[in-house]
Amino acid sequence: MEKKDMVEIEGIVTRTHPAGVFRVLLDNQETILASISGNIRQKSIRILVGDRVKVELHICDLTRGRIIHRFRKAKS
C-alpha cells in the first residue's frame, strides 16, 4: 500500500480486545477498531486504555486502522 492511500489521525484508546486489537475514539468522535503495527509489536510498547495514539487508516475502509505511534504521557 502506498502512503498516499493512507490517512493518519489521532485518538484515545477506550477499550482493549484480545490479540492486540483496540477500540479507539478518534478526534472527530468516530470509533474504530485498530490493531498494533509490527514496529510497535517488535519493540514491545505497551498500549493501555487512556493512551493517546496515532492511527493509520486506509481510505477504502475507515472503520479499521493500525496504531503506528503512542504518545508519551505528560509528566505531572
Question: Can you tag this structure with a few keywords?
Answer:
76 residues; mainly beta; OB fold (Dihydrolipoamide Acetyltransferase, E2P); five-stranded mixed beta barrel; 5 strands; 54% strand; globular
In short:
Helix content is 7%, strand content 54%. With 76 residues, the chain is mainly beta. A five-stranded mixed barrel has the order 1-2-3-5-4.
SSE layout and pairings?
Elements: E1 6-17, E2 21-26, E3 31-36, H1 38-42, E4 52-58, E5 61-70
Task: Walk me through what this model shows.
This protein has 76 residues and is mostly beta strands. It has one domain: Nucleic acid-binding proteins (OB fold (Dihydrolipoamide Acetyltransferase, E2P), Beta Barrel), CATH 2.40.50. Helices cover 7% and strands 54% of the residues. It is built from 1 helix and 5 strands. It has a 5-stranded mixed β-barrel. A hairpin with a 4-residue loop joins strand 2 and strand 3.
Q: Return the string of H and E elements.
A: EEEHEE
Question: Taking strands numbered 1, 2, ... along the chain, how are they ordered across the largest sheet?
Answer: 1-2-3-5-4
At the fourth level of CATH, the homologous superfamily is Nucleic acid-binding proteins
User: For the report, how would you describe the main beta sheet?
Assistant: 5 strands, mixed, barrel
Question: According to CATH, what is the topology?
Answer: OB fold (Dihydrolipoamide Acetyltransferase, E2P)
Shape: globular
Family: Belongs to the IF-1 family.
Pfam families: eIF-1a
GO molecular function: ribosome binding; rRNA binding; translation initiation factor activity
Subcellular location: Cytoplasm
